[in-house]
Specification:
This protein has about 90 residues and is of the alpha+beta class. It is about 35% helix and about 35% strand. The chain has helices spanning about 50-65, 75-85; strands at about 5, 10-15, 20-30, 30-40, 70. A hairpin with a 5-residue loop joins strand 2 (about 10-15) and strand 3 (about 20-30). The longest helix has 16 residues, at about 50-65.
């Protein structure tokens, strides 16, 4: 799947140019971004696409933008909790 990194989102379109996977984040302050929305089309669910989106957003925010990550999106929040537990 080809992902497009936009200003505050990462997404992929199908051949009809319809969004089939998307993650949105916003700058909260100078050093923090909040992931607030994750979407995966029904046809792709159960294939690890949401995990891939959060992983890509996390890397974009922490490695490229050199910022911290928070999440109000329930999926991303659980992902961050698991990541933080595995790093302890």
């Amino acid at each position: 799947m080809k992902y497009i990194i936009d200003q505050n989102r990462i997404y992929a379109n199908n051949e009809d140019n319809k969004i089939i996977a998307e993650i949105d984040f916003e700058k909260v302050d100078e050093n923090t971004y909040n992931i607030y929305h994750t979407f995966v089309d029904e046809s792709l669910r159960g294939q690890g696409i949401a995990n891939e989106l959060v992983t890509r957003a996390y890397k974009e925010i922490t490695e490229v933008r050199k910022s911290k990550v928070t999440a109000t999106c329930s999926y991303a929040r659980k992902w961050l909790e698991r990541k933080n537990k595995s790093n302890q």
